[in-house]
Design goal:
By secondary structure, the protein is α+β, with helices and mostly antiparallel strands. It is about 30% helix and about 25% strand. It has an eight-stranded antiparallel sheet with strand order 6-2-3-4-16-15-14-10, with helices on both faces. Strands 5-1-7-8-9 form a five-stranded antiparallel sheet, with helices on both faces. Strands 20-21-22-23 form a four-stranded antiparallel sheet, with helices on one face. Helix 5 (about 165-175) packs antiparallel against helix 8 and helix 9 (about 370-380) packs across helix 12 (about 440-450). The relative contact order is 0.11. The model is unreliable at about 1-5 and about 10-35 (pLDDT under 50).
Length: about 450
């Protein structure tokens, strides 16, 4: 039997970290922190709420609003900061969901921070659906598995590979989340009124959410002080939690690229973030691109990475990070998020550490526009008209003119004509920004790493 499984099944009693390490030493005399078999082991204080939330998370993952193959059920689970976080995307990647189990909802040991991703199959879904109030339910989170134990019966889910588009979406979601601000906070009655007003069927047109007196209102007509919600029918994914939530905070952003709905329940939260339109997944938003063109010293990346590992949660307000400007901090945090190392907490406005199976040298390769921009630079298919302001970049048979600006850069290509700056910069604008912000030696280094 696997050591991690033996440890996780040995007792339902809470152990101190010292006791846990002594127990492990019995099985492995060469124990070290890196070999901790479990990230977390303990009892759920609100098992029914947790089960309902995980069933909703599974419902999100199985949802598919575009014809993109089969459904998935693969949450990413992170243990750290005395919290458990379970994150997932819909199969089309246009919906992101997260369950935050806060310290008061857990009674157990956090032996080590860590992240894994497992498949919630039929057996796990069935076990979750049978959980009732006041039952004793235990969770074990390890690098290779997730265990649910109830009444001496266990359901074990093994680690699975993470979909590539989820890795791309993870980076985009964290950037968008850090730009969201609270728009409305609704009580129990207002939550009921909001979800009763969600229209039936699939809605192709945008809807706008506003508050009329104390009543939340959804309308296809834009009004003052309203926010845009694309694909509003996706909110029905939350139907199973409407009667369980104590309050709901709705977040929005100026660019309308995303909205977030965060249910507050007893000692836990459930967050649903929607992309601008249901036919556009987070993995293709291109939001990360603007933070990849600026030069970021490796020392900054190492410093923030080590700081995140030690503190598990952090923000720019932390004293030890004050030397970084807001822009520099954003650029470094985005690069770490692109490696899967960081998530973002809306309520506490902090980044949290997590590690996905992702290598640093794949950041640019997962962003095709950025990679194509580097190819253009390598070929020398550009010429400056006005240094650091205007440049011509070779396209399909002819050159596109780019005007660089801090506010809004412009290009004459068809991508820019279709999307403007709503989905990140086109590859031609990226060429100008990379050349403007990086020394030639740095560009050559990146190209060499990518083996273009």
């Amino acid at each position: 039997m696997d050591i991690s499984y033996q440890y996780c099944q040995v007792s339902s009693l809470k152990k101190t970290e010292k006791e846990s390490r002594l127990f492990l030493a019995h099985f492995n005399e060469e124990y070290s922190q890196a070999e901790t078999p479990c990230f977390f082991w303990g009892k759920l204080n609100n098992p029914y709420l947790v089960a309902r939330s995980l069933l909703t998370l599974s419902k999100v993952v199985a949802a598919n609003y575009m014809p993109l193959g089969s459904s998935l059920r693969d949450p990413v689970i992170t243990a750290g900061g005395n919290k458990l976080r379970l994150e997932a995307f819909s199969s089309c990647c246009s919906v992101y969901a997260k369950v935050d189990l806060l310290p008061a909802s857990l009674e157990g040991d956090f032996l080590q921070q860590g992240t894994t991703n497992v498949d919630f199959n039929t057996e796990m879904i069935s076990a979750l659906s049978k959980i009732r109030k006041n039952e004793e339910v235990f969770f074990s989170i390890g690098e290779k598995d997730f265990v649910l134990q109830k009444d001496n019966n266990s359901v074990v889910e093994k680690k699975v590979s993470l979909p590539l588009r989820w890795i791309k979406g993870m980076a985009t979601v964290q950037v968008l989340a850090s730009e969201l601000t609270p728009f409305l906070k609704l009580d129990k009655l207002q939550i009921q009124l909001l979800f009763r007003s969600v229209p039936k069927g699939n809605i192709n047109d945008d809807y706008y959410l506003s508050l009329r007196g104390r009543r939340p209102n959804l309308s296809p007509v834009k009004s003052p002080k309203s926010i845009c919600i694309g694909g509003v029918h996706r909110l029905r994914l939350l139907d199973g939690l409407v009667n369980l939530a104590d309050s709901l905070t709705i977040y929005a952003m100026e660019t309308e690229n995303a909205t977030a709905f965060e249910f507050q329940m007893k000692n836990m939260r459930f967050t649903l973030m929607l992309s601008r339109s249901f036919w556009r997944g987070f993995s293709g938003e291109g939001t990360v691109l603007s933070h990849l063109v600026d030069d970021v010293p490796d020392t900054w990346l190492d410093k923030l990475d080590n700081y995140a590992k030690i503190h598990e949660e952090f923000s720019l307000k932390d004293n030890h990070l004050q030397e970084l400007s807001t822009t520099d901090f954003k650029n470094v945090a985005t690069r770490l998020a692109s490696m899967g190392l960081l998530g973002f907490d809306l309520t506490d406005q902090v980044y949290y550490y997590r590690k996905l199976p992702f290598k640093m040298n794949r950041i640019e390769s997962l962003n095709p526009r950025y990679k194509n921009a580097l190819k253009i630079i390598k070929k020398g298919d550009y010429k400056w008209l006005v240094k650091n302001k205007e440049i011509e970049v070779k396209g399909s048979g002819h050159y596109h003119k780019i005007v660089l600006s801090k506010e809004k850069s412009k290009c004459t290509c068809t991508w820019y004509a279709s999307h403007q700056n709503e989905r990140g910069d086109c590859k031609h604008i990226l060429v100008g920004k990379i050349l403007k912000n990086k020394e030639q030696t740095e560009i050559e280094k990146i190209i060499e790493e990518l083996e273009l």
